[in-house]
Amino acid sequence: MLLEEIEKAQRNVRTDAFQMSIGELVNLYDDGDIIIAPEFQRLFRWEVGQKSKLIESLLLGIPLPSIFVYELENGQWELVDGLQRLSSILEFMGKLRDEKGVACPPSVLEATKYLPSLHNAVWEKSAAIADVEENEQVELDRSLQLAIKRSRIGVEILKRPSDSMTKFDLFQRLNAGGTTANAQEIRNCIILMVNADYFRAIKAAAETPKFLAVTGLNEGQTEKQRHIEMAVRLLVHTLVDYDGILDVGEYIDEGIVQLATEADITGASTTIKSTMDLLHEAAGGNALRRFQNGDYSGRVGLVGLEAIAVGVAKNLADIEQQADPVQFVRDKSQAFWEQPEVEGFVSPGMRGTTRIQKTVPFGSEWFKP
User: Fold this and answer.
1) Beta-strand pair 295-297/34-35
2) How many C-beta atoms surround the C-beta of residue 46 within 10 A?
3) What's the pTM?
4) Which of 78, 183, 259, 315 is buried most, with the most CB atoms less than 10 Å from its CB?
């Protein structure tokens, strides 16, 4: 049985591997043949010390771990793992472009354990380097530049026939150990890899003023992609049944990959926008907050999203047929918090897997006209 499972899984993964020089990789990036997706690039957060140690390793001839790329249908490579390493090299050489395609300022290094003379080292002097005055910059010797360009790194290629879930699993396993990206930031990259248009539709819907008002998110939370997480959870809870086996994170991950693969972009956008527009008309920024003693209080939590927002989304077509859909949603969402079952939804320590098996079905029934 195990051998059969291994053989079946291996058929889903087609890879190739070879060594390339840093110079070759940089040329591919310059030509647009290696793509770093914008939502992936925003995770580039290495500090100067980490960047300096990487360049030190190249100069000392210390092998670097392989980078992983996904081969697109047009033959381009999309970076899957190795963002920090490749971006650090490109930035140091003055080749890195930001999310909008604009050249980033080159980086400057600091002293390292074995190469203290890397202090203020740059690829070439530039007024664009803000941290160090140009007359204090130490340009790397031409021979050392060539040594870096000729350094070799392994490139693991995930070939096109690999399915979306395999691509997801590989990216998640390669990146789960990192400390810089949160779960939704990694999830964003996966959705983008599976279906870029689907991701952009979700992102656009989650950035509308009404969505942000209903979810009550501040700038810091949106910076951490909490708004997209809320939109993704809304879609998955509404459109993908939960089997009770996976943990919540895995369920959300697999659910959104399934939806992105099915690619009903218009349906996804409509579900998010229509639901949040209706909730906003009903109670504005209070729509998902607890209603008690005639007033709203507290913050927007997952219970409100899973029961109220998902309940409305699941029954949207029927609710819109009511004489006054806005009043219906307002009355039902306020009365929801008075139901005895709801206290069990907010019990401290309740596992997410237990909670969503209560909140989602209850909300689905509660908002049926």
Assistant:
1) unpaired
2) 18
3) 0.71
4) 259
